[in-house]
Every structure is written in C-alpha cells, then in structure tokens.
Design goal:
mainly alpha, Non-ribosomal Peptide Synthetase Peptidyl Carrier Protein, Chain A, 2 domains, 3 helices, 4 strands
Length: 155
C-alpha cells in the first residue's frame, strides 16, 4: 500500500500537475500555430509567390526524395510560434515585471561626494576617499526654527 500512496503523492504534487497542464496547452498551441501557417500564412505567400502548397515541393536524387517544401512549412510554423510567444507572452511579462519592480529608495543616510562620486555619510564634511572638503547637507535638524532670523540675538 505504501508505494501506491507515494506514487499518488508524487502525481498530485503541484509541479507535476503544472507541467502536465503546460504540455497539453503547448500541444494545443502547436496545433493552432500549424493551422495558422497552413491555412493563412502559406496561402498569403502563395498569393505572392504563386506556389499553392509548399509541402508538394520536393526533388529526387538516386531514388531518394527530399521534401524541402515540408521543411519550409515547418520552418514557417516555428517562426510563427516564436513570434506569437515573444509578442503575446514575453513582451507583456517584461512590461509587467518592469512596472512591479521599482528602484529601491535612496538611503537618506548616504550621499555621493561631489568630487570623486564615492559614497559617504550624509552628515560628512570631508570625503574619506579623496579628502575633499564638502558642504554639509541641510537636514531638518540643522535648519533654524520657522520665524527666527539667523542674525537676531533675541531668537
């Protein structure tokens, strides 16, 4: 009884079911793309080039038949599947991912040295790397209170 329950647990795991669904959907999508190529793209190319069906194109050498028309049909199917996957799956997913991933906010305790562009503490007045004198940043704690004047002795 134990091997049966282990096999059942294996089959019902999420990954196996998801892969099975993906394979079935992929096969259906492949059939849809093949129909698109055979029923729409090939007749469109036929209207331009004049050949009604690429699968009928072949040549024979020493009793061996090379069906290059069939290869052309399969190549077109591959290109259509790749284009549809790219434009209908990859491009929208990349746009969605770029919207959802945002640049982390800048660290308010760090800033760049204006001389050498190294990272220094926000309150630093001298760069540790290039030893340049740096003007301190104005933070809320260093600003005078609202309404006071800097040169007023009564303030």
């Amino acid at each position: 009884m134990k091997p049966y329950s282990e096999f059942k647990q294996f089959l019902l795991r999420g990954n196996v079911v998801e892969i099975a669904v993906a394979i079935v959907i992929g096969a259906a999508f492949g059939a849809l793309a093949t129909a698109l190529v055979e029923d729409l793209v090939t007749p469109l190319i036929t209207a331009i080039g004049g050949q009604p069906d690429f699968s009928a194109l072949d040549f024979t050498i020493n009793d061996s038949t090379f069906r290059y028309g069939h290869f052309i049909n399969k190549s077109l199917a591959f290109i259509v599947i790749a284009a549809v996957m790219f434009f209908l799956v990859i491009v929208p997913m990349n746009a969605l991912m770029s919207r959802s991933t945002k640049e982390p906010p800048a660290d308010p305790t760090r800033r760049k040295c204006p001389k050498c562009l190294s990272e220094i503490p926000a309150e630093a007045t001298r760069c540790a790397l290039c030893t340049a004198d740096i003007l301190p940043t104005l933070s809320n704690s260093t600003l005078p209170p609202v309404g006071s004047r800097s040169g007023d002795p009564e303030a």
